[in-house]
Amino acid sequence: MATVKAVMGNLTVAERQVLTAVNSGASSLSLVGSGFIVICYLLFKELRKFSFKLVFYLALSDMCCSFFSIIGDPSKGFFCYAQGYATHFFCLASFLWTTAIAFTLHRTVVRHKTDVEDLEPMFHLYVWGTSGVMTVIRSIANNHEHLSRLGTWCWAQTGHTGKVVHFITFYAPLWGAILFNGVTYFQVIRMLNNATRMAVGMSERSYQPDPRSDMKALNRWGYYPLILIGSWFFGTINRIHDVVEPGHKIFWLSVLDVGMAQLMGLFNSIAYGLNSSVRRAIYERLDLLPEWAQRWLPKCSRLRGQHQDSELVPLKIQDQQ
């Protein structure tokens, strides 16, 4: 979560109001998107598999991060600190859960291990423990102050030491997660590309894999690391600019910083959560509606009986070898 002092700085009152509106709007979209994934997981029993359970934890972190970003301006004291630190904690947890998902996929596809479900307690310790430690470390270096004029945000005022600690406790884990996810998904996609080519060369005419389904799945995985980059690229540039020129704020950069960062939950819910399994579960429930109500549904809902474009389609190729 961006430090308010770093983002708002010397901006005018009107510019701060724009940033507050951007923050509230983007956070609301992320809250709706991540909340939808959480509700689907709780309502649809067929989604309660280990792979989607990790997506549920990711969506839950995004939902909490978005909620604490838009709850308003707490009056003072404990509630002010709770808002700031809860936002920092859950935003950290969000991108740490993406690394757990990447690790699970890599361990299953590349290393051919089947023990990933046994690692769930370690995932919880890693994500919640790291988020908690980073949040506590940052709190030690902050000079706490309630900033009532900043509207939506309530965060800690930081000097030079606070900025350094902010980089260490947030942006260092963030870009470490981006690097890890990028390398992991590159290895997974390369592995599946090789498996696809081998399957095509060895298969008989009776088995012809659909390259469009395979490429769709591979392309979807390729988007995952880009979500974190797109969400936090402008925030990183803004923090670096604030260190180099602390007295000069760039309004458009601050808008992109706040808007893209708060849209992370929406991006995650679309990329990770809104997959074929979720869509199929929703379409099956729509079949229970009266016929007159189904006429009002969009045409895309009629595609529910067609072939499932699962993200794990390439895994079937390996089973055919």
Can you describe this structure?
It is a single chain. By secondary structure, the protein is mostly helical. The protein contains twelve helices and no strands. Helix 4 (78-109) packs antiparallel against helix 5 and helix 7 (211-244) runs antiparallel to helix 9. The chain is globular. The N and C termini lie far apart (47 Å). Residues 145-152 and 300-321 have low confidence and may be disordered.
Task: Determine the N-to-C terminus distance.
Answer: 47 Å
Q: Report helical residue fraction.
A: over 70%
Mean pLDDT: 77
How many DSSP-defined strands?
0
Reading the helices and strands in chain order gives: HHHHHHHHHHHH
What low-confidence regions span 5 or more consecutive residues with pLDDT below 50? Answer: 145-152, 300-321
Tally of contiguous helical segments: 12
Chart the SSEs and their pairings.
Elements: H1 4-8, H2 13-43, H3 50-70, H4 78-109, H5 120-141, H6 160-202, H7 211-244, H8 251-262, H9 264-273, H10 276-286, H11 291-294, H12 313-320
